[in-house]
Design the sequence.
């Protein structure tokens, strides 16, 4: 029997259906949660992500505002924008798409967001709330990973969980969430000695280092649950041949579409060795936007004094 595929699109649809009910109730009480998405510059991946976030916000019947500014925008201009969004009653969530252009002090901008409107969960106040187990807004991708595990009945309590990657946006917060769910957690990274041997201890292995197909079979404990956070676009036949053992299918895809998406996990190895895994695309990715929607609804409830219940397993 092959490994079980953890279908992120299906779980996203479940969450969106639950949110739709909550949004209906909020609207009946006169509250329409609002999200402002800020995009600076012309990074093509960021443009796709923001378009998708705005589309989902509108489809759920939330108030949506897209603010697009040129790549030459200064830190001061963004701080001024954030101050105005912080002050607006109808805006519950503020999302500043990353990365910001190099002349912008991204930390200062993120720290200027009202923590109650920080739907990305990246403000130091929300990080502090997360670490100390207080209610708050939790980063979207880590929250989505927990939703996938819980809704797929993968046991976390008592499991050995290994997180490869230590970013502020994914590696560190997902490790904290797994810990709060009673896993025994190891965080490792590119400097870890014998990385494969450490990864192989994980009943749950989270790959979040941003390097195409670098988690190979030797990293995976047989039967483990493997969560692949990576999104990497291969654009040359050489890359495809280097990564795939059997490149015929992906080479055809490259020819037809101009690129092939792979995660941080080698896709053939994971099918062979894992017990369950998230595919790329269609695994973790869809959950990130679903949890952004959940955080926007949660922010609206918290700010406007109705009880929070959406998408919180922290
Ligand atoms: N860039 C890549 N992923 C994300 C995300 O989840 N939020 C924001 N704001 N920017 C990103």
Sequence:
């Amino acid at each position: 029997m092959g490994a079980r595929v953890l279908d992120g699109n299906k779980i996203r649809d479940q969450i969106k259906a639950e949110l739709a009910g909550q949004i209906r109730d909020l609207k009946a009480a006169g509250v329409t949660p609002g999200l402002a998405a800020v995009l600076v510059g012309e990074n093509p991946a960021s443009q796709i992500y923001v378009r998708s976030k705005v589309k989902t916000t509108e489809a759920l019947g939330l108030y949506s505002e897209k603010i697009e500014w040129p790549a030459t925008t200064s830190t001061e201009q963004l701080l001024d924008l954030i101050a105005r969004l912080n002050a607006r009653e109808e805006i519950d969530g503020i999302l500043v798409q990353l990365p910001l252009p190099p002349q912008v002090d991204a930390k200062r901008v993120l720290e200027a967001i009202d923590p109650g409107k920080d739907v990305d969960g990246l403000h130091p106040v929300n990080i502090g709330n997360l670490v100390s187990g207080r209610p708050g807004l939790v980063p979207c991708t880590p929250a989505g990973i927990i939703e996938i595990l819980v809704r797929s009945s993968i046991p976390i309590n008592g499991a050995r969980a290994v997180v490869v990657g230590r970013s502020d946006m994914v590696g560190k917060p997902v490790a904290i969430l797994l810990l709060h769910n009673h896993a025994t957690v190891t965080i490792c990274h590119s400097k870890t000695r014998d990385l494969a041997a450490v990864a192989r201890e994980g009943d749950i292995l989270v790959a979040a280092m941003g390097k195409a197909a670098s988690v190979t079979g030797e990293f995976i404990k047989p039967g483990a649950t493997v969560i692949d956070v990576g999104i990497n676009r291969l654009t040359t036949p050489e890359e495809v041949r280097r990564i795939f053992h059997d490149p015929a299918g992906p080479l055809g895809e490259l020819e037809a579409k101009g690129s092939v998406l792979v995660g941080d996990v080698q896709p053939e190895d994971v099918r062979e060795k894992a017990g369950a895994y998230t595919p790329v695309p269609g695994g973790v990715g869809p959950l990130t936007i679903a949890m952004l929607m959940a955080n926007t609804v949660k922010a609206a409830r918290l700010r406007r004094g109705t009880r929070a219940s959406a998408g919180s397993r922290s």
Summary: The domain at 27-127+288-303 is CATH 3.40.50.10860 (Rossmann fold). The chain has twelve helices and eleven strands. The radius of gyration is 20 Å. Residues 5 and 279 are 7 Å apart (CA to CA).
